[in-house]
Amino acid sequence: MSRFDFDLFVIGAGSGGVRASRMAAGFGARVAVAEAARLGGTCVNLGCVPKKLMVYASSFSSAFEDATGYGWSRPPASFDWAALKANRDRELGRLNAAYRELLGRAGVRIIEGRAQLRDRHTVEVAGARFSAERILIATGSRPVRLPVPGAELAITSDELFGIERQPHRVLIAGGGYIAVEFASVLRGLGSEVFLSYRGPLFLRGFDDDVRSTLAAEMGKRGVELRFGTAVERLDRRAAGVAATLSSGEVVAVDLVLWATGRVPNTAGLGLEELGVRLDARGAVIVDERLESSVPGIHALGDVIDRITLTPVALAEGTALARSLFGGTPTAVDYSNVPTAVFSQPAVAAVGLSEAAARAAGHDVLVFRSSFRPLLHRLSGRDEQTMMKLVVDRASDRVLGVHMVGPEAGEIVQGLAVALKAGATKASFDATIGIHPTAAEEFVTMRTPVG
After folding, report:
1. Global pTM?
2. Does 43 score more than 60 pLDDT?
């Protein structure tokens, strides 16, 4: 009989924590998971799922506009923020219940409350103490606010989903996924949107052609981009908030959204007191087995700050459960992880950007195509789709795939399989396209650029 209450105690019931819990229990481990908020974590409650639902909602405005070129006439459309919020919240409630059912069916004990570590084998939740042979930290990340005067007058993405009324004028500070996606969403829903970013172009780390193409297309849709500027202060005004930018411009808005990044959510867990090593951002430092500097304490997902994507956390949860309880030591392969930005138009990529490929020493060939989608030949919309392949000249291997355009995520997901399998440009060239689709452009680009 084990001297511990549980074989595995998981702190955090987000994507990675739930996956590790369910799989470990499936292998016969006694598992508990503690959660201080709603089951499903950021992705289900404050990220991927509600955001994608809002992306869908915001896409209808352009669809209505495009329909007239195809002979459709309609009365003026109107948007009801409260109806969207109610329907979205109902779906999130369904998902919360589904997560609870999945964990219960797997035999995982759910403990509600904020957990703290007391020693390497003891966790305390709401005054009750539990012992475990192994502990998993899966507490995710939290948004940060800029340290400027009046910072408290702005909200973060965590709070955006709870606002009761649609803002008419919005300033978004930031240049990552969250900033770009919510700028597109709110603009699509009819708000006037300003985006301020201190760098020369948003989406740092993405291919430069992706970044410049998206900036141009978002500008066409009416998003007011302010690159090379930062928010210096916020002041309360009778009608909302006045934001002073480093350029000297003062923007009066109803709402300011901090989308300036997220940091690992490790504060107050008791990790440092136990000797668990954290990096400068507060992320738990782990080895290839996802084990921290303290034996028996593991971590995964956003809290280790490697690749902060839900599917990566799921892969880490799977690998950990298999390694600890499934008898199959498993490491996560972080190469060629695809990603998408659900902006309008959308962005997706897998593999190396052109700049990263050159920096890694590759002699590259670049294949790029920009074109007006067939849909817009009749809609009249001035929008360009951009597709790009980065190829190693010596081996002919495709190093990177990049796209800006409708359904970019759906298209690049399939191409990620090809890159994982080591596809060459010759493989792409030998593949017959599906016509007429945008995706066929990836297998018809023959002439390198530049």
Report:
1. 0.95
2. yes
For residue 413, count CB atoms less than 10 angstroms from its CB and return exposed for 0-12, middle for 13-18, buried for 19 or more: middle
Question: What are the residues facing 143 on neighbouring strands?
Answer: 262
Is 301 inside any structural domain? yes
CB < 8 Å & 24+ apart, contacts of 239-242: 240/169, 241/150, 241/153, 241/154, 241/171
The β-bridge partners of 392 are 364
Paired tokens of 52: 């994608």
Same domain? For 62 and 22 the reply is yes
Are 63 and 134 in contact, with CB atoms under 8 Å apart?
no
Q: What's the Rg (C-alpha) of the chain?
A: 24
**Domain match, 290 and 228 both:** no
**Contact (Cβ atoms closer than 8 angstroms) between residue 215 and residue 224:** no
Distance of CA 326 to the CA centre of its chain: 29
Q: Under a CB-based contact definition with an 8 Å cutoff, are residues 206 and 190 in contact?
A: no
Could you count the other beta carbons within 10 Å of the beta carbon of residue 393? 12
Residues 251 and 274 in one domain: no
CA distance readout (Å), 334 to 288, 316, 338, 391 = 11, 10, 10, 20
Q: Give DSSP secondary structure letters for 217-232.
A: HHHHTT-EEEET--EE
Provide the CATH number for the domain around residue 159. Answer: 3.50.50.60
Active site residue 121: no
Which residues, 6+ apart, have CB-to-CB distance to 237 below 8 Å?
Answer: 252
Which whole number is the average pLDDT over 317-330?
97
pLDDT at position 111 over 90? yes
Q: Identity (one letter) of the amino acid at 359?
A: A
Domain edge (last residue) among 260, 285, 312:
260
Distance in angstroms (rounded) separating the CA atoms of residues 179 and 159: 14
Per-residue model confidence as pLDDT tens digits over 338-388: 999 999 999 999 999 999 999 999 999 999 999 999 999 999 999 999 999
Q: What pLDDT is recorded for position 450?
A: 74
Residue showing tokens 């355009």: 405
The parent domain of residue 87 ranges over 6-142+263-325
ω before 200 within 30° of 0 (cis)? no
Q: Are 229 and 249 in contact (CB under 8 A)?
A: yes
- Residue among 306, 280, 329, 302 nearest 137 (CA): 302
Peptide bond into 50 cis (omega under 30): no
Look at residue 401 and tell me if it is in a domain: yes
Same domain, 15 and 138: yes
Q: According to the model, what pLDDT value does residue 1 have? A: 56
- Cα separation, 220 vs 383, in Å, equals 8
CA distances from 203 to 15, 228, 240, 265 (A): 24, 13, 28, 23
Pair 232, 267 in one domain: no
